[in-house]
Amino acid sequence: MSDTHSQLAASAEIRARIDTSTPHSARFWNYFVGGKDNYEVDREIGDQIKEIFPGLVDVALTSRHFLGRAVRHLIREEGIRQFLDIGTGLPTADNTHEVAQREAPDARIVYVDNDPIVLTHANALLTSTPEGRTAYLDADLYAPDTVLEAAAGTLDFSRPIALIILNTLGHVADYDQARDLVRRLMAGLPSGSHLVISDSTATSEGMIAASNAYNASGATPYYVRSVEEIAGFFDGLDLVAPGVTQVPAWRPDPDAPAAGPVDAYCGVGRKP
Predict the structure, then answer these.
(1) Crossing angle (nearest 10°) for helices 175-187 and 144-151
(2) C-alpha R_g of the chain
(3) DSSP code of 203?
(4) Triad 105, 109, 110: Cα angle to 5°
(5) CA separation for the pair 108, 110 (Å, rounded)
(6) Residue closest to 86 by CA, chosen among 25, 144, 19, 145
(7) 45-51: long-range contacts (C-beta < 8 A, 24 or more apart)?
(8) 139 Cβ partners below 8 Å, 6+ apart?
(9) What's the pLDDT tens digit per position in 1-13?
(10) 204 in the Ramachandran plot: left (φ > 0), alpha (ψ -120 to 50) or beta?
(11) Residues 135-176: tens digit of each pLDDT
């Protein structure tokens, strides 16, 4: 079979895996941040949740802004030039490689997701500066050894790497399992590597109600956790100031409009 036919067959197989009859977390989040890669079923649950808890839109937007601030900090202050972004989601503005390579054209980024709707847009994430590199892995958070082995084709594991897992660990129902997955991923990275996490939290009745409504929709469930549980992901790491905090409060840009409180917490930690 020719390369063209192989690519077409792979593309058809991916499209066949896309379910448009139930809401989907990546498409739902895409709707909240103003994207166009979503279906009516995603917009319906999105609008329903906006009625229950309008603050979830702020969580989506501020989490995106946190990604940019964290990447810029890691490049400017920590000298990081390599990023492993797991649970990539649908491309929007200022994806990890765009932010990183504006700051450091030689930055290398590996995106990881196994979701068919995300895979159909993977090429949008594979642009790169001539000096840097980007790659996309059709892989799973639940297989950390596989992820690390495949990422080594692009990243240099003798140098620090930033592991980014944004708004993804909530999909792992068992907290101990989620912590173990993070631990195993960080164990495979060298000293000086960093962990970047943000997730929605069970810090208001509105967020809990929104989570329950989303989970009842038929989508892959997302479990909101306590702030203490978010902090637990950083055990054994040196937290970068200001520690585990609400997403807008993590090193806010001085020139940006002040954002109000949100039910989402984040942190950045350094591996000793």
Answers:
(1) 30
(2) 18
(3) -
(4) 160
(5) 7
(6) 144
(7) 45/213, 45/214, 45/217, 45/219, 48/213, 49/210, 49/213, 49/214
(8) 112, 113, 114, 146, 147, 150
(9) 444 333 434 455 5
(10) beta
(11) 999 998 999 999 999 999 999 999 999 999 999 999 999 999
How is residue 240 written in tokens? 């970068």
Out of 21-25, 45-49, 71-75, 203-207, give the one with best mean pLDDT: 71-75
**pLDDT for the residue 44:** 79
For residue 54, is the peptide bond before it cis, meaning its omega torsion is within 30 degrees of 0? no
Token readout for 19 is 């379910």
87 token code pair: 């649970």
Q: What is the pLDDT of residues 188-222, one digit of tens each?
A: 999 999 999 999 999 999 999 888 988 887 778 89
Lookup: tokens for 13: 């197989």
Residue matched to tokens 């063209």: 4
